[in-house]
Design brief:
It contains no helices and ten strands. The chain is mainly beta. It is globular and about 50 Å long.
Length: 138
């Protein structure tokens, strides 16, 4: 991470357990916490959302196994903190059903999971974004 215009660098290294991949999701505004995703490199299973601070790492959610692809970060931002850093959303976009989870600190506050028959056409969560002046998620 680089602060501009000061050009001050902040270095983060994601853990890489054997057989697992690590993907950065978001960095908190205070630069004191990172949200990242671990998953099995070969099967895209055992996908877990982690929050890591200088105090350590905590798994805060396990994402459902997807029968299609693991996700598509090119469709929407996968995660973001509010400007205050108090809340984080994680938007998982596997085929065929998206999942949205909202955290306050390391506690899961709400989630939108697909119903048993899958999301009705056009009803799944997509393109999540925080308001610029409130703790409102659109």
């Amino acid at each position: 991470m680089v602060d501009l215009p000061e050009v001050r660098y902040h270095w983060f290294t994601l853990p890489h357990p054997p057989g697992f991949g690590a993907e950065l999701l978001a960095v908190s505004p205070a630069l004191d916490e990172i949200a990242w995703l671990s998953n099995n490199d070969t099967t895209c299973t055992d996908r877990k959302v982690h929050l890591t601070t200088k105090s350590g790492d905590l798994v805060v959610a396990t994402l459902p196994t997807a029968p299609g692809r693991c996700g598509a970060p090119n469709l929407s931002k996968q995660a973001a903190y509010t400007h205050s850093g108090s809340h984080l959303f994680v938007l998982d976009q596997p085929l065929p059903d998206n999942v949205l989870i909202v955290f306050q600190g390391n506690k899961q506050m709400s989630s939108l999971l697909p119903p048993s028959g899958g999301w009705p056409k056009g009803a799944q969560p997509e393109m999540a974004v925080w308001s610029s002046n409130s703790e409102t998620l659109f």
